[in-house]
Amino acid sequence: MENSDIKEPQGTKLGKRKLPLGSPQVRKTRTRYVWLNVLPDDLWLKVREGETISEAIHDENIELGGDCGGLGKCGKCRVKVLSSVGPPTVVEEELLSEDELQQGIRLACRTIVDKDLVIHRDEADFETEYFQILKTGHRPLVHPDPLVTKRLVTLPLDFQEDSLSSEWLSDLDRIKLVMLPEYKDLIAPLNCLRSLPRMLKETSFSGAAVLHQNFMLAWQKQEELGCYYGLVFDLGTCTLVGKLINLLDGSETAVVSCLNSQMRYGSNVISRLQYVKEHPHGLESFHDLMMKDINRITKRLFKAANIGPEDIFIAVAAGNTTMQHLLLSIDPSGIAEAPFSPVLTDGLVVRAREVDLLLHPEALLYVMPTKSGYVGGDLISVILASGAAEQDDDIILGLDLGTNGEIFLGNRKRLVTCSAAAGPALEGAAISNGMIAKAGAIEDVYIEDGELRYQIIGNIKPKGLCGSGLVDLVAALLHSGNISYQGLIQRSRKSGPNVQNEKIVKHAGTYNFLVATSEESYNQRPIYLTQKDVRELQLAKGAVAAGISMLMEEMGIRTDDIAHVYLAGALGNYVDVMSAMRIGLIPDFDPGIVSSLGNAASTGASMVLLSKNYWQMANNLSDFIEHIELSSRLDFNQYFVEHIDFPKANLW
Amino acid sequence: MSEFKALIEAVTKGDISKAVAETQKAIDAGGFIQAIIDEGLIAAMDEVGDNFSKGTIFVPQMLRSAKTMQECMKLLEPLLKEGDTSSKGKVIIGTVKGDLHDIGKNLVAMMMEGAGFTVTDLGVDVSPEKFVQKAQEVEPDIVAISALLSTTMPAMPQTIEALQKAGIRDKVKVIIGGAPVTAKYAQEIKADSYGADAGSAVTEAKKLMGIS
């Protein structure tokens, strides 16, 4: 039967997959990373194994308190370790009371992170906060030309003694005169004019003009030239991410993320749209919730750089089309039904205060252009981050994998996109023991020495499977023959050390796979992968794979023609490339050309923030890219059905 | 029944060439055409529907079986005498207005055909008016309505209402289905039945027709 097609693994460990000779290593085999979960705000850090908590946090610009610089002398960098922790060091025994040690209090500078740890630090000590985020990921070189600039302007002395001057010039005219020819049409908003006389005097007529196009947003003190930041937001359906970007050098000063408060109204876009449609004040309440979240994020970002809202003049937001509508308080209901029409797809520049974003009163908010109801500003940002729009010859495939799998293919000559309704399975929803990627989620599964092993986020007992864990598990079971290529969970007819027959449990006419027993699990309930779960995954990966196939056909290319594959999104960043190929989520590529883009939506937004050219490019992309509406394509069904089965052949 | 065991097995496995050969064999043996259909093909598709409901087979396998049956029917149909075919009933099926999801509805249509119903597929994005118009034209026993989005579900009660207004609600049975649809929802909007998947949709349709 189907298993005869599967080559017998030869002592293959799924954790250390063999790659073709000469191909670069993909994920494993580099430095091992572990998770550090910092409570109470559920911040996640991916840290190098063996670093101390202080080192891990220092790299991320988080301050824990303490004034000896990590020498283990002051005893002030206290944290409470909530997960299991080894015995205290001698220094800790000296500096901490027995009671404290008992409670799990340790010194951050002395505690080595050698496995996933959950720590709690005193809220009173909070100087800055961080959320785990993939910060790596490539970004095309940005020639700095930020959307808002600051310029030192000094008015000549003879201007200042107005009464004696033969020319009776207004303050503004004198500023214009100095800034000729570039700013001959300079306009200052009322707010700026009101404070101008005072500020000119305070700065002795030599200050920093904050400029946006031909507007002077403010006149600041000279020293403000060094305080030059902008914000970017990635507005996801589940998570909101904010970044504080230093506009002087383009670096990320701080990153904060939080769960989207709209989650309680459902975890997908459709449920939000439905709520807005059915409730007269739905739009208003979603907008309010979002702004509360965002303003909370910005507040935390400001703390990190010791600045205030009035120091920020510019922000860029990227999200899916629905989230961008909600940000702008524009009714997105049209996106809910065919023909899925948003109110606008153009990029938009608004005053931050018009959407209740608390920044400088004259601050501007750039909202990314979109392509359609389901190809949003986030995908355009991902395209920017991938560099595909600047690529002449190489063909690039990009996947933003979440509830909707947004896909693009091509380069600056031609770029096609589609949105494949992958369903929630890839984010761990619609799976009987599925969950989003947070503490307790099995995120990585492999078979080693015949044993099924897994890594759990937070180093606690498992609570369920998140998307990457699900993909890994199914790949491993396909490999062991415990799932057939048709998706049937079964006792494997193969023999071999990797076969997991003893965990195949009969249930209502089909079989389930026992992932963790009730003793092994966090909630004392067994964790199963059910037959239905596998079917859900088949539908999800079938939709994504069919989307890729259709785009390739549209472009008239084969997998060999693709030079780079970039993965982004909640699943894309964490999924194991080999597992993704094993289940057929993506076609078989040389793993060396596949890489993760990190939080690509915010990277793209940062590029716009830092360069007017990229804003222009984003707007051009909105017109240039071709969108294929899969549901209106008759041949989509055929592609979809073809991709529901798993690939027969084993890669490893 | 056992007479068609090999045929049934070939159809459930989706082995087209074997199924066609078995059908030919049955014809050559002089069997009743209607019996080959009822006890061979339809019985096989019943099993396919059951397997699908249980989860032991999935969409591609079910489609393959349906295709196998269609190939066999090509041999049998020309041999059917006028009035020989006793259709199990007439069904019109469509996905509601605003919803372009096709596959689930197609599977149901295929399985209904496989069970011996005469199916008229109205396609996707079908307005209540179109459902009414077709219902008046075809005079079906069953109106099957599909919706795959929670946002398009409200078009289901609208369609039922339209049937009511046109005065044909009493003449048809309404069965609904689709991922977000539940049995409770079917009750709420006063549909007659609910099919959780393509297999159970057929079972429910048969119940509505008083056959099982």
Q: Layout of SSEs?
A:
The complex is a heterodimer of chains A (652) and B (212).
Chain A lengths: L32 E7 L3 E6 L4 H7 L18 E4 L8 H6 L2 H5 L2 E3 L9 E4 L28 E6 L2 H4 L10 H8 L11 H13 L3 E7 L2 E6 L8 E7 L3 E8 L5 E8 L9 H10 L3 H24 L8 E6 L1 H8 L19 E4 L12 E4 L9 H10 L8 E7 L2 E7 L4 E7 L19 E8 L2 E6 L7 E2 L1 H14 L23 E4 L2 E7 L10 E3 L1 H25 L6 E7 H4 L4 H6 L11 E3 L3 H11 L1 H13 L1 E3 L7 H7 L10
Parallel strand pairs in A: 1-5, 9-12, 12-14, 15-24, 17-26, 18-20, 24-25
Antiparallel strand pairs in A: 1-2, 3-4, 3-5, 6-7, 7-8, 9-10, 10-11, 13-14, 15-16, 16-17, 18-19, 21-22, 22-23
Chain B lengths: L4 H9 L2 H13 L4 H22 L4 H18 L13 E6 L7 H12 L3 E4 L6 H11 L3 E5 L8 H11 L7 E5 L5 H6 L4 E3 L2 H11 L4
Parallel strand pairs in B: 1-2, 1-3, 3-4, 4-5
Helix pairs in contact in B: 1-2, 1-3, 1-4, 2-4, 3-4, 3-9, 4-5, 5-9, 6-7
Features:
heterodimer; A: 652 residues; alpha/beta; Ubiquitin-like (UB roll); Nucleotidyltransferase, domain 5; 5 domains; 6-stranded mixed beta sheet; 17 helices; 22% strand; B: 212 residues; Methyltransferase, Methionine Synthase (B12-binding Domains), Chain A, domain 1; Rossmann fold; 2 domains; 5-stranded parallel beta sheet; 5 strands
